[in-house]
Amino acid sequence: MGGATLNGLPAWVTLLRAPNPGPMTLDGTNTWVLRAPGEEYAVVIDPGPLHEEHLARTAELGPFRYIMVTHRHHDHVEGAARLSELSDKTPVLAADPAYGTPPERKITTDGLRIDVLDTPGHTMDSVCFLVECGNDRAMFTGDTILGRGTTVVAAPDGGLGPYLASLELLTAYPQVMMLPGHGPAHADVAVLATYYLEHRRERLAQVEAAVRAGADTPEKVVDLVYPDIEPAVRFAAEFSAAAQLDYLRHRDRESGTSADGLDRL
Ligand SMILES: [Zn+2]
């Protein structure tokens, strides 16, 4: 993929990687602790899964002003309530009110300036956090852009149309470092957003071709577009294919045109 990985994190950022590696979580969930120089209170982004040792290790870096979550998947938010308990009832901020209080758009606290950007697509509640500390700017992307590989965009909780718009939004932040929910940090979020926009558009073109060749279900699309897919992630590819078919269907309905074959879907 495009763009350089980041050599070393800024001093105000600490990464704790949760011990939950897997095909969907890469090396594990990245829990980020942000503390501006000289400040007592830090902010946590994505406490991760309900893993006592990981949460206890994170709590040692308190006190915290907020626990913030990028989206409602359990590998990011499941440990939020327990971490709050372990850290003097730190408030949890989450776009989905099932997990915490929806955050303000702009938060200024403890030497950090945090913009909350709506970036639906991976899930409809996905947000990115643009954080400024001194002269540094960092984008915390959750699963909207991973440090490695392609994220899942799956119905019913995600959607490709919103996802493409979210990637467009992130292309507007050149030279802002990217700190994702899984995998390594990168030097420039706009470079990755541009790369994934192109990648998604190429895939869409391949799916359109597959539909023209007679693939009318997600399973058949995966057979044609991803013939060498690993069995462990095949279900994710089928979810993605369903989202692509859905996107093409809506796009053609809205534009009043229909690509060959799409009217059969
Ligand atoms: Zn996720």
Account of the protein in words:
The mean pLDDT is 92. Helix 4 runs antiparallel to helix 5, helix 5 packs across helix 6 (218-225) and helix 6 (218-225) crosses helix 7 (234-255). This protein has a five-stranded mixed β-sheet. The chain has a five-stranded mixed β-sheet with strand order 6-7-8-9-10, with no helix packed on it. It contains seven helices and ten strands. The chain has helices at 52-59, 74-77, 80-86, 160-170, 189-212, 218-225, 234-255, and strands spanning 13-17, 30-34, 42-45, 64-68, 92-93, 106-109, 112-118, 127-133, 136-142, 177-180. Strand 9, helix 4 and strand 10 form a beta-alpha-beta unit. It is an alpha/beta fold. Zinc ion binds next to loops.
Task: List key phrases describing it.
single chain; 265 residues; alpha/beta; five-stranded mixed sheet; 7 helices; 19% strand; elongated; binds zinc ion
Q: How would the blueprint of this fold be written?
A:
Elements: E1 13-17, E2 30-34, E3 42-45, H1 52-59, E4 64-68, H2 74-77, H3 80-86, E5 92-93, E6 106-109, E7 112-118, E8 127-133, E9 136-142, H4 160-170, E10 177-180, H5 189-212, H6 218-225, H7 234-255
Parallel strand pairs: 3-4, 4-5, 9-10
Antiparallel strand pairs: 1-2, 2-3, 6-7, 7-8, 8-9
Bound molecules: zinc ion.
